[in-house]
Design a protein that fits this description.
Layout: E1 4-10, H1 17-30, E2 35-38, E3 41-43, E4 47-49, E5 55-57, H2 58-67, E6 78-82, E7 87-92, E8 95-101, H3 102-112, H4 114-127, E9 130-134, H5 152-158, E10 162-167, H6 173-182, H7 186-189, E11 192-200, H8 208-218, E12 221-227, E13 262-267, E14 272-273, H9 279-282, E15 287-292, E16 303-306, E17 308-309, H10 312-322, H11 324-333, E18 338-341, H12 343-347, E19 351-354, E20 361-364, E21 371-382, E22 385-388, E23 391-394, E24 397-405, E25 409-411, E26 414-417, E27 420-423, H13 432-446, H14 458-476, H15 479-488
Parallel strand pairs: 1-9, 1-10, 2-9, 3-6, 10-11, 11-12, 13-15, 13-16, 16-18, 18-27, 19-21
Antiparallel strand pairs: 4-5, 6-7, 7-8, 14-17, 19-20, 21-24, 22-23, 25-26, 26-27
Helix pairs in contact: 1-2, 1-14, 4-5, 6-8
Length: about 500
């Protein structure tokens, strides 16, 4: 099968492309297939650092885990990290290469990257039996098709078959499937092999007449109907999604081990990045995690987390405008726990010198930690390891800010003053022993009779969820047909069902 592949496209953003790609990867690797994930271009503020020091989307790192392979820059050669509604930092092969406006990127720069994207895909194909590609948004974004390097552009370059995923929970899935296909140029339509229905609730026999009618209209089959699955704590791109034990905006699912639950409030700062840091907290029995944007929502919180952000100065201004900054100052004065991670750590310091990200120059921080931050043009990308609270800790760093720590008690690469902690390390709470030690400190400072579960393994829970995704594909999709697509490509003779998209390349 060497070099086979498939593109998982979607009718919309958040249709389920990331999780379906991960599910197919896990199903394939359980069949003994050496598989790799791939996304030519990703737009996300949730990123990860590979062992070679490359920054890629967290979704591709998660898919690599599903495939049981080490994530590399080849799996996500282009990453766009939005800094505003109109511009993004461009990360190429894991390293930042500059800021571009949306017009500048889509106006020509994007097409220039197609060669790099195809080379990365071909390198993966040469070393794996199969490569499962994830698309972005919708392949029917006809205004962007000419310079597309992630949907039909890459499918056509690689001659990969395409399966289109639709979220039936939103409604209108048949119109989405038909319209998506009909808007494509003939050469693109020839690669669209069929469809996957995602997030179905109810009796599938009631859906089957519609699937038959869809086949009559398009000449393309539906390869499966995946049921709605609750509690999938899987890294996606930018939506606030469910945690490993339940929705992050809902009450705790697993009962506490001790007498009390522990309430965690996460400040939903602008351009929030790597909010997946709190997934490990939500995985703990008896921990309730919610995202907040009002000061009154901090009143009953035992721990407040100020997360990472792509706009530290903007986040600081937002905290002040909302009254959350004053609420954080009151918490610190009362000895109530606060944790700042990456940009959140920088916000808690004395001042920031930023001539790189916001170009705001000198900005006063909240002054809760004896730290001064200077933004450097070079981005720090690292996979640190060390000890804190008597436990082994691993994490990863993604930041332009360089912290000058001038006091306090050492805490990872940052510091602690009273019940206020700060660090640049993302992912540290996934280290089980450290997480439990940290939560014990938080519970003591908050006066809660909360006891961390002695046997919660975040890594094991993540593996269970990836296996659930593999099970969904194995049990509810036509895996024989999918395997044939991966090995042999799209069937020949698929009908053309409507005029192609205006201006699409022939």
């Amino acid at each position: 099968m060497r070099g086979g592949g498939l593109l998982v496209a979607g009718t919309t953003s958040d249709a389920g492309k990331s999780v379906v790609t991960a599910g197919i990867c896990r199903w394939l690797v359980r069949q003994g297939v050496k598989v790799a994930p791939f996304k030519g271009q990703n737009m996300s503020l949730n990123s990860f650092v590979t062992r070679e020091g490359a920054e890629i989307g967290r979704a591709q790192a998660m898919q690599a885990q599903a495939a049981r392979v080490e994530p590399t820059a080849l799996m996500n050669p282009v990453l766009l990290k939005p800094g505003s509604d109109r511009s993004s930092q461009v990360v190429l092969m894991g390293k930042p290469v500059g800021e571009l406006s949306a017009r500048g990127y889509h106006g020509g720069r994007q097409q220039a990257l197609l060669g790099t994207v195809v080379e990365c895909l071909e390198e993966l194909r040469a070393t794996h039996d199969a490569v499962i590609c994830e698309g972005a948004g919708s392949p029917a974004e006809i205004n962007l098709r000419r310079n597309d390097i992630v949907n039909m552009g890459i499918a056509r370059a690689a001659r990969f078959p395409v399966v289109v995923v639709g979220d039936i929970d939103r409604g209108g899935v048949f119109a989405q499937f038909f319209g998506t296909t009909a808007l494509l140029a003939p050469e693109d339509q020839a690669l669209v092999a069929g469809y996957l229905v995602n997030k179905f609730r109810g009796d599938v026999t009631l859906l089957e007449p519609g699937l038959d009618m869809l086949y009559d209209l398009t000449g393309r089959r539906t390869f499966g109907v995946l049921p709605y699955a609750h509690g999938l704590g899987i890294d996606e791109e930018d939506g606030l999604r469910v945690s490993l034990r339940g929705a992050v905006r809902e009450s705790v699912v697993a009962p506490p081990v001790g007498e009390d639950v522990l309430r965690v409030a996460v400040c939903a700062v602008p351009l929030m990045s790597n909010f997946t840091d709190v997934d490990a907290l939500a995985a703990e029995p008896g921990v309730v995690v919610r995202f907040v944007d009002r000061p009154e929502e901090l009143v009953d919180a035992d721990l407040v987390v100020v997360p990472g952000t792509r706009g530290t100065v903007k986040a600081l201004a937002w905290l002040r405008e909302r009254g959350l900054a004053d609420a954080l100052l009151r918490r610190a004065a009362d000895g109530r726990p606060v944790l700042g991670i990456c940009g959140g750590f920088q916000v808690l310091g004395e001042h920031i010198e930023d001539d790189v990200e916001s170009r705001a120059g000198h900005v006063d921080g909240l002054g809760l930690l004896p730290v001064r931050v200077r933004f450097a043009p070079e981005k720090t990308l690292a996979r640190p390891a060390g000890e804190a609270l008597g436990e082994r800790v691993e994490g990863y760093e993604i930041h332009h800010g360089v912290a000058d720590v001038r006091g306090g008690e050492p805490f990872l690469d940052g510091c602690r003053v009273g019940a206020v902690w700060g660090t640049h390390w993302h992912g540290s709470l996934e280290s089980d022993g450290f997480r439990r030690a940290f939560l014990r400190e938080v519970a003591a400072a908050a006066g809660r009779r909360f006891v961390p579960a002695p046997d919660t393994s975040f890594g094991a829970l993540r593996e269970e969820q990836l296996d659930r995704l593999g099970d969904l594909v194995e049990e509810h999709a036509d895996t024989d047909a999918l395997l044939k697509l991966i090995e042999s490509g799209a069937p020949s003779g698929l009908p053309f069902i409507a005029p192609g998209a205006p201006g699409a390349p022939a």
